């Protein structure tokens, strides 16, 4: 039997925090009231009314009341899951007790909020034994309020070395009879506090990349059936940087990210979904340059590659100071090595359907062909790329499709935007493949 | 007492899989029959008749029979070790039972194959407790068939987050009286399935680099006296890419790699051996460029470095848009910083002999000198590089020599090619040094 | 209660080893006699008279005597801590017994050295159980010689895969009643021996980067309240390379490094301290280029960025072969994205004071503004960078200040140099902020 957490959503793209009380505002619940009304691509998979860092320490009791008031009123219509973040600290029993009190209050069924709340987010956890303390408080609260044991999800912010180490213990600890850690849901990296806890320094004060932390979080999530989420990207205007971070995360198996604004939510909701149209890349001195599609051809118009015809079936190719004389076959081979293709949703569905048909016909592996005409300095080159697909390739290719299906099933409020983006036909085929 | 696995080979460069049954072929054992007859540099250190992914699910009983038939006939002459891969899955008891049945069948001494088989490869393992289940089946099979307990090696494919975590437990678990995990031999990364298990996505569908997985596998192997092997490189035509991957692996202590063709086996067998001739590299804007040896001088003839004489002992050096005026000493210093040397087998043997002589004469550390004439834009510069060698340097330098010796001792079928490559004299000296 | 080691120093920048006996020298204690008399920036935070690798095996008894003689004479005046390194090996009981004998000898109060010694450095440790053996010897020595249990610090060199794995066990093991592992102090990476133990190979024989080892050491230190130190950088002349290594380490939370010479000590002592003056960087094709400060403006004078005015509020910007036409606002935005600022000690103190004042006035978050005039190809551009500071930003920014304060308190011999470098006013403010 393989390990399974208790909660439903298989993928979470977005973890959107909003302050629950803001000093000096007339209506201190304004920001969570705005957040709970988000819909479609601007609404996150997981919404986190944040009664920890985003709310000043002196405002947290008011924050807890705002959570109750706003969720009891609007929670039923919110399209994603709702997981308030409450206070916690591995080094402070007083903060942990405050957590318990807020839990008891927010989860009180008479206050009509808990029926719309899927779980809670616990920040600043330490060793696995510290995680168990939070789990135990939630268990007590469930019992006190007549909720089923384990029904409330628990997500944690990994922002200390101890918590990173605990990621390796999850699988072993989650099955034990004296805890309810099967309630675990998201493992969220918190790089600002982690940087402090690790005492790291960078010259500009920017955050270190923390490659290993992200790997370990993703691995811990995979081993224990949980979901890994990267921390906030705080240069909100830097959309390109946010995209690069998400692409890097996705290659680590971390498909979700923290969002600080509805604009970031929108980018993050789309990021792990395949693009509408495929594109060809050319590796130019180690950088991947996207070729412009022009009337069925893919055009490189930069200065760093030069290609000319020097005679019958003879070419001169210059890349990065490296000049070569090639015949047509050699040129094709060379460009094939440098080119790569980013498949669209439609391409992936096509390939999966083709492989499924082959499998039914009794074949274990087939070659998938992808052709294109590249245009470099007015020289046209036909390339054709064969990739062998077997069961393992098929299953690895399936991840973005499974994610797409999970999104489509769980987020009816995004149907319209998805169909607008991809076309209804592709969406329908994507929902039945795999 | 330090931990030791039970099996002989200290280094494994190549892990070559071949299908054991191919649908629609007249003689479905053709590919393993061809593989078992490979010799010399085309023959792997470890040959893996593959009855898992490379063989269609419906053909696996036939695959097991082919393994028995081909190995009983040709196994005695095969120059490397033979480790068939059989089916297994951490999440499927039915697949594990199939593993047990194939084991029982292939290991039956009356079928005359097991005497040529060194062990088995178990894919898709999970936690360490899952590894123990496979170990237990092998123990039962050994007892049933009158083989010594622990005599069959067990190698695993690490292709899940759980298995990666298990790498940290090996050292502690291997000594325990209720298992025979000392039979462990190779830890092999399987990046395609690992990517699926981690739910990672890349835009092109290519594999992520999985730096941490490879480090953790290498570390696990080092801690438990085992051997780490990287997974398959499936762009078979891309020899340069295969070499880069191997160089990267070697810097992680992972000296072996999976091969899919005899051509890849040949490249992989040579890769961790030192080169025949030494070469000088120049760091040009962060890229290492190999200098052309020309009549005792090393020539840079690219466009990215410009050097000219501007007066008596005055030079102008231009690298990467950075122009400097230098005198002769400064120029030498600058080029010395940019240059590095890749020693040949002969160079390494020389240095080790020199250090051994110094040690016998009572010295703990000596300077190793390496000089060269560089030629950049027709300006000649003499550089001379001193490196301090102590016992630790000596021992770290010894790794490629120990590997060479291990290869030479275990693979008589490669003697001729090695002596052709390096010359008999260097080979003889390499065999006695250290 | 959070875990605390027993020893005082919160930060260690430098770990300086010197041979304790040199073959053939008239006065074999000459080098440690010179080392113990270092003062100010040339004196390390931790000085390690090295009776292991830096001293020939045949000289180690003499080495131990030299340690006693030099420290009893000069130890009282040495400005840093003193931690001799003695022999140890996880695989050799004979070496471990030699360790015990040297410990007994050096720690004998009648020899007048131990009162100036803060602890010992144990190389070549293995599993955590091996660390406990060394801990136990120190405990026995403490008892034998009437020293308080746990009063001698123990630092280890992490130079094997087993020891790297042990880093994850520290937090759990340190609290146990049957050991005194709370005496642990420094976790020092030893990359030369680690490379040998991992059997890693690089073409030139240079050391691999070992990113994961350094992360795991830093994480282990953070989780257990210890201090992480990187291994030696043996190209002593390569100051730039040493600095790059330290910057890389600091981003991992590893703020200290091994030094082999007083020159390296000086560089390493300064490295984690903020600079005297701030500077602006421009990201040019992925490289960070420092801009020249000139009369209040920051000037880019390289060839890789071209900027010109093409009309009223119209500009042409060319970076890395990428040409864009921009208006003034777009140009500002673009340069703002490419520019980053390295704050000086004074800048950091300013920002912290500003945030502290805001906090007292009841605000949880404020925008920190940083403006500059950039000059690119004679076009002037004003940029202004807002960064949001909250409690977490504040605390992460505090690390270099806390380090500065720790240095200032513990190293009176460096006061003069620090005040010369930064000015007395900034030093005074830095000592009270936070």
Automatic annotation (TrEMBL), chains A, B, C:
GO terms for molecular function: catalytic activity; magnesium ion binding. It holds the Pfam family HpcH_HpaI. Residues 116-252 form the HpcH/HpaI aldolase/citrate lyase domain. Keywords: Magnesium, Metal-binding. Coiled coil: none annotated. One of its GO terms (biological process) is oxaloacetate metabolic process. Its cofactor is Mg(2+). PANTHER family: CITRATE LYASE SUBUNIT BETA, LYASE BETA SUBUNIT, PUTATIVE (AFU_ORTHOLOGUE AFUA_4G13030)-RELATED. NCBIfam families: malate_syn_AceB_Halo (NF041315). This is HpcH/HpaI aldolase. It comes from Natrialba asiatica (strain ATCC 700177 / DSM 12278 / JCM 9576 / FERM P-10747 / NBRC 102637 / 172P1).
């Amino acid at each position: 039997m393989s390990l399974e957490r208790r909660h439903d959503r298989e993928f979470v793209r977005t973890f959107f925090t909003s302050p629950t009380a803001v000093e000096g505002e007339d209506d201190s619940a304004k920001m969570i009231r705005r957040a709970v009304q988000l819909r479609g691509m601007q609404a996150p998979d997981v919404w986190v009314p944040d009664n920890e860092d985003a709310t000043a320490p002196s405002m947290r009791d008011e924050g807890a009341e705002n959570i109750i008031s706003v969720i009891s009123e609007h929670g039923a219509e919110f399209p994603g899951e709702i997981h308030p973040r409450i206070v916690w600290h591995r080094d402070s029993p007083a903060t942990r007790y405050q957590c318990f009190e807020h839990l008891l209050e927010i989860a009180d069924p008479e206050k009509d909020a808990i029926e719309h709340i899927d779980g809670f987010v616990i920040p600043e956890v330490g060793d696995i034994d510290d995680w168990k303390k939070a789990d135990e408080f939630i268990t007590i609260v469930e019992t006190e309020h007549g909720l089923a044991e384990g029904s409330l999800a628990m997500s944690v912010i990994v922002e200390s070395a101890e918590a990173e180490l605990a990621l390796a213990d999850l699988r072993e600890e989650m099955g034990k009879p004296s805890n309810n850690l099967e309630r675990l849901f998201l493992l969220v990296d918190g790089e600002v506090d982690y940087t402090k806890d690790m005492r790291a320094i960078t010259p500009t004060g920017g955050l270190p990349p923390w490659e290993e932390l992200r790997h370990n979080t993703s691995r811990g999530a995979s081993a224990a059936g949980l979901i890994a989420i990267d921390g906030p990207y705080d240069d909100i205007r830097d959309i390109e940087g946010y995209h690069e971070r998400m692409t890097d995360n996705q290659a680590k198996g971390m498909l979700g990210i923290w969002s600080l604004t509805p604009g970031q939510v929108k980018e993050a909701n789309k990021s792990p979904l395949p693009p509408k149209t495929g594109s060809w890349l050319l590796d130019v001195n180690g950088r991947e340059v996207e070729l412009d599609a022009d009337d069925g051809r893919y055009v490189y118009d930069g200065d760093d590659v030069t290609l000319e015809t020097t005679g019958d079936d003879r070419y001169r190719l210059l890349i990065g100071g490296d000049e070569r004389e090639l015949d047509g076959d050699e040129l094709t081979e060379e460009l094939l090595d440098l080119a790569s293709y980013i498949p669209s949703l439609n391409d992936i569905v096509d390939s999966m359907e083709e492989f499924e048909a082959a499998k039914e016909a009794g074949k274990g592996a087939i070659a998938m062909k992808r052709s294109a005409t590249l245009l470099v300095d007015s020289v046209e080159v036909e390339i054709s790329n064969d990739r062998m697909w077997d069961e393992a390739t098929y299953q690895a290719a399936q991840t973005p499709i499974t994610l797409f299906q999970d999104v489509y099933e769980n987020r009816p409020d995004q149907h319209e935007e998805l169909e607008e983006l991809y076309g209804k036909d592709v969406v329908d085929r994507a929902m039945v493949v795999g």
